[in-house]
Design a protein that fits this description.
By secondary structure, this protein is an alpha+beta fold. The chain is about 55% helix and about 10% strand. The chain has a four-stranded mixed beta sheet with strand order 2-1-4-5, with no helix packed on it. It has a four-stranded antiparallel beta sheet with strand order 6-7-3-8, sandwiched between helices. It has a three-stranded antiparallel beta sheet with strand order 9-10-11. Helix 13 (about 335-360) packs antiparallel against helix 19. The radius of gyration is 27 Å and the shape is globular.
């Protein structure tokens, strides 16, 4: 297999992927844009070291990033060269495993995504499987047993060069706050090969669930099993706990695991609520959970802070980058009513920024006249004692900085964007 990995075409494809993904520099501080010139001078030497089993990866740089619950997640950032090689191995390794992966595994796979996972989960619930075994794997990426993982790879890949390379990446020490720490288990989050390796080990779980004929959905290490009664769900949960502990040596976070009903179940940032319509009973729809709304509003508020030194177009561009990704993620959910309210709030935030940018009363008066307000009224409005946020919600700006004027300047409604995505997915 190593010959396929080291083919020029595969290495070039890996290079394109790494450059496209961008990402931070590793422990050697080499940036992605320096990779091409480095490989021009060192590619032959690197290939020779891999072929002679003398290649040694650099340590991983550990970076803690904040989570929505206030805690942090440790990411491991390999060097750019190691990312390039991992991507090259992942491309070939994926072709060996992908066709054998389960139909209900949706994470980090071609033609699979979060929306398909959510749709399948919703289908189970609406088909009557409303007792859910919700299992949280405790620190999954930190707990993966290297021996079990390498043995699973060896069943399909007999190449000792490739296996040795993967083992070296798994064992590479991680640098945290300037100190190197040994690693004897776990798959570092942040490396190009880690999503595939996680799917390889959890495919054993998929096979076990399929063998038992169970209804399940898995997205990376986030999985749930669906049953028609609480007693059945409890029995399934106990047996799967034993399987994960004994077969895969993966511990379960008991405080976050349990038997759920749809109203108390969350999946990939989504919740489930009943459909309140005449003639419809026991059916559910997707919604965005409360913390997701709060996170979005907090980000939008930070961008529309009046003291941020952005011009109007730059502010809109930053807003679009935030909310378009959010709306795309939650496009299957019923969020129309809340989006309408959030749109109105955001437009007032933009009006507030514009009012603040006008600064002096005389400039405000002239701009109000340009927007069609009579001279006397413009003078009175420009000298108002109201605060900026009150002005943004008053006729002073709502009747002058109208929705149509905002649109002509490039503003796009979140609700309009959401509705445009509906025909292709509903």
């Amino acid at each position: 297999m190593i010959d396929q990995v080291l083919k020029r075409k595969n290495l070039y494809k890996a290079y394109r992927q790494v450059v496209g993904n961008k990402g931070a520099a590793g422990i050697d501080h080499m940036r992605v844009d320096a990779l091409f010139s480095y490989l021009e001078n060192n590619r032959t030497q690197i290939i020779h070291m891999i072929s002679s089993c003398t290649y040694a990866p650099d340590p991983i740089m550990g970076v803690e990033i904040p989570k929505s619950n206030g805690k942090t997640r440790l990411l491991g950032i390999p060097t750019v060269v190691d990312r390039w090689l991992q991507e090259a191995v992942s491309q070939v390794l994926s072709s060996k495993f992908e066709l054998g992966f389960g139909a209900f595994s949706y994470g980090f796979r071609p033609k699979m995504n979060i929306h398909k996972a959510l749709s399948q989960s919703l289908k189970y619930l609406n088909d009557g499987f409303q007792d859910i075994v919700d299992i949280d794997l405790q620190g999954f990426f930190d707990q993966v047993d290297h021996s079990i993982l390498l043995e699973l790879i060896y069943k399909k890949v007999k190449c000792r060069y490739t296996l040795r390379l993967i083992r070296k990446w798994l064992r590479a020490p991680i640098q945290i706050n300037g100190r190197l720490h040994k690693r004897r288990k776990g798959v570092p989050q942040g490396s190009p090969i880690s999503p595939l390796l996680s799917n390889i080990i959890l495919d054993e779980l998929d096979n076990e669930l399929s063998r038992r004929g169970l209804k399940y959905v898995r997205y990376a290490d986030d999985f749930s099993i669906y049953a028609k009664s609480k007693s059945e769900a409890r029995r399934i949960g106990n047996s799967i706990f034993i399987f994960l502990r004994d077969k895969l040596q993966l511990p379960i976070n008991r405080s976050k695991s349990g038997i759920r009903r749809p109203s108390t179940f969350e999946l990939l940032g989504h919740g489930f609520v009943p459909i309140y319509k005449k003639g419809i009973k026991g059916q559910y729809q997707l919604v965005a959970k409360k913390s997701s709304w709060e996170s979005l509003k907090r980000k939008l508020k930070a961008i529309t802070k009046k003291t941020k030194p952005y011009n109007f177009l730059e502010r809109l561009d930053r807003l679009n980058q935030v909310w378009k990704g959010w709306v795309n993620n939650y496009r299957l959910a019923s969020i129309q009513t809340k989006l309408k309210g959030l749109d109105e709030w955001l437009r007032n935030r933009l009006r507030y920024c514009i009012w603040h940018d006008w600064k002096k009363p005389e400039r405000k008066r002239k701009n109000l006249i340009r927007l069609g307000i009579r001279s006397g009224q413009a003078y009175a409005w420009s000298r108002t004692n109201m605060g900026g946020w009150a002005v943004a919600q008053s006729p002073i700006l709502i009747t002058t900085i109208t929705l149509s004027r905002l649109r002509r300047k490039g503003y796009q409604s979140m609700l309009d964007y959401y509705l445009k995505t509906q025909p292709s997915i509903r």
